[in-house]
Amino acid sequence: MSEPVLQLKDATIYQGESMVLSNINFEMQKGDFVYLIGKTGSGKSSFMKTLYGDLELTEGEGSVVDFNLRTMKEKDIPFLRRKLGVVFQDFKLLPDRTVNSNLEFVLRATGWKDKVDIKQKIESVLDKVDMKTKGFKFPHELSGGEQQRIAIARALLNDPELILADEPTGNLDPQTSIEVMEVLQDINKNGNTILMATHDYALLLKYPSKTLKCDQNKVFEVVQRKN
Asked: Which intervals hold domain ABC transporter (predicted)?
């Protein structure tokens, strides 16, 4: 039996009073890699925000990593986020701390206490993104691509059941985008489930995968043409 990590049924997403996306029916299984595409303003970010609890789902049904999005309370959101890894376009690293301190901060904030466990976990995630030697550096000493790798490492800290990557290559040049994509592909091959919002169609051609499109308040699957 495949396990759905994410399910939306007749879900409608609102931003304040305005309806952004209506009647979404979508399911993601463990191990999937799915793109979410669409023009700026088409609802990709609202879709993502609903999944990590930033926007409330008020219509339809939805569940993410066993959390019911309709019945979830405010106090449940931190627990939902521990089971998710979220990667943003602008890295969101703490500028006054080294890479290791950035990662340790997240672990301690999510209940890790043992120093040895923390050190091992940080080494393990940095290894996964090929940044093992950069732990002592500060974010400003790293390139954009390196900062995004650290952001991906941070998303992996609590062994998330689903990684939400919101335009993770949006601030990167084409070559660096490919390097970051390679990291995401490797993580996916190791069993991590990834939903990635992007407007970089070159990546879709280079790394074809299941694709959802937001357009005219709808979300639908796009069938990619085989060359």
From this structure: 6-225
For 1-35, the pLDDT digits (tens) are: 567 999 999 999 999 889 999 999 999 999 999 99
pTM (predicted TM-score):
0.92
Question: Phi/psi zone of residue 80: left (φ > 0), alpha (ψ -120 to 50 degrees), beta?
Answer: alpha
Joined tokens for residue 21: 């996306």
DSSP state of 141: G
SS3 133: helix
d(CA 79, CA 89): 23
CATH topology for 4-222 is Rossmann fold (3.40.50)
Torsion sign (Cα): 2, 208, 154, 127: positive
Question: For the chain, which residues make up each domain, given as ranges?
Answer: 4-222
Tell me, what amino acid is at 124?
S
> What's the rounded Cα separation, in Å, for the pair 117 and 222?
43
CA dist., res. 185 & res. 136, Å (int) = 26
SS3 162: strand
Q: What whole-number distance in Å separates Cα of residue 212 and Cα of residue 37?
A: 6
CA distance 75 to 160: 19
